[in-house]
Amino acid sequence: MSIVEPAIELMNKKDKRLSLFTLGASLSQNFCENNNIPIPEYRIKELDSTGLYLPQTHTKNAQILVNLGVTANPVENPGHMRWSHPAWKTDRTAFGVVLHETGHHIDQILINKSLWGSYPSDRSSWLEVKKGKRISGYEPNSSEAFAETMRLFIGNPDLLKLAIPSRYNYLCQVLKLQPVVAMDYKTAIGNSNYFAAADKWITNK
User: Fold this and answer.
1) C-alpha torsion sign, points 189, 96, 40, 14
2) CA–CA separation, 56 and 60 (whole Å)
3) Which range (91-95, 125-129, 198-202) has the least confidence?
4) What is the pLDDT of residue 196?
5) Distance (Å, rounded) from C-alpha 188 to C-alpha 151?
6) CB under 8 Å to 148, separation ≥6 — which residues?
7) What is this structure's pTM?
8) Is residue 152 packed enough to be buried (19+ CB in 10 Å), middle (13-18) or exposed (0-12)?
9) I need a surface site. Which of 31, 132, 138, 187 has the fewest CB within 10 A?
10) Are 142 and 127 in contact (CB under 8 A)?
11) How many domains does the chain divide into?
């Protein structure tokens, strides 16, 4: 599944927030299906935040809610504090919000599996893996660090693999998750204005 053409073409479309939401939901559903993860419902809803994950209950499926109106548009020409783009390490667009909340969903599903003995129950290894280099500035705790890692693993796994291989290897080797996007990180980003920063982030230890 390519995320390149939509990310570029949506820059000048009036409905780009909705299109990025739809793209993110489609890619996330594909990821969950390929990794035997129950697929949550994706909905647009006014919230006090940009996104929210609601776990499954006895009466409702798991839901991922996105407050579409407050999500960011892609920053075509980044600079200073303005860095946000689909498949980049910082992504406050609807695409990134959907993938981040999907990360919380996957975390919850795998934790539940561990209670039944079908998933590693020792999370101490993740606590060690998440130390050091971060995905973005939003990693206040272990759960958010995992969601940010999953956001990049779903949307641009090549960038995660090159920049923070310990996190990539943890997802693949310990959690047995497999990416569904198979393209190099620059192709996935699709905006040459981010390439130099991507190269720098990769080499920065």
Assistant:
1) negative
2) 6
3) 125-129
4) 96
5) 13
6) 100, 103, 134, 135, 136, 138, 139
7) 0.91
8) buried
9) 132
10) yes
11) 1
12 class by beta-carbon count within 10 Å (0-12 exposed, 13-18 middle, 19+ buried): exposed
User: What's the pLDDT tens digit per position in 34-62?
Assistant: 999 999 999 999 999 999 999 988 888 99
Q: What does the pLDDT look like over 136-191, one tens digit per residue?
A: 988 989 999 999 999 999 999 999 999 999 999 999 998 999 999 988 999 889 89
Structure tokens of 43? 């909905």
Report CA dihedral (102, 177, 166, 91) to the nearest 10 degrees.
-30
CA dihedral 58, 34, 121, 51 (to 10 degrees): -60
Q: How far apart are CA 168 and CA 163, in angstroms?
A: 9
CB 63 within 8 A of CB 84: no
| 3-state secondary structure at position 2 | coil
Domain extent at residue 96: 4-203
